[in-house]
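We were asked to recover a plausible sequence for a given structure. The inputs and outputs are reproduced exactly as logged, with field labels preserved.

PROBLEM: sequence recovery
POSITIONS: 90
GIVEN STRUCTURE:
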């Protein structure tokens, strides 16, 4: 989670399950209780964490600012190119 309550696109809902081959190591690094469990992360830190658990087939990684409305998207594992959007009120 980011400072403003950012949630990551890789694990945004309770009950999320990853059935990929690298499950124990990959999820162990990102899931609650893992190396970063229950810590508040800035958006850049959250993207860095997603980069460490990305797999060759990862198409995108997303960090959502739950209170700010900021959305940071990385496409094709190009973590040096972050696309930032801001969601407005309906």
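RECOVERED SEQUENCE:
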């Amino acid at each position: 989670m980011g400072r403003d309550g950012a949630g990551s696109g890789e694990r945004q809902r309770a009950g999320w399950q990853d059935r990929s081959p690298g499950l124990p190591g990959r999820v162990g690094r990102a899931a609650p209780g893992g190396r970063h469990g229950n810590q508040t992360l800035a958006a850049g830190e959250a993207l860095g964490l997603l980069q460490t658990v990305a797999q060759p087939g990862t198409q995108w990684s997303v960090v959502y600012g739950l209170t700010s409305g900021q959305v940071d998207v990385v496409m094709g594992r190009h973590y040096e190119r972050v696309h930032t959007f801001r969601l407005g009120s309906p």
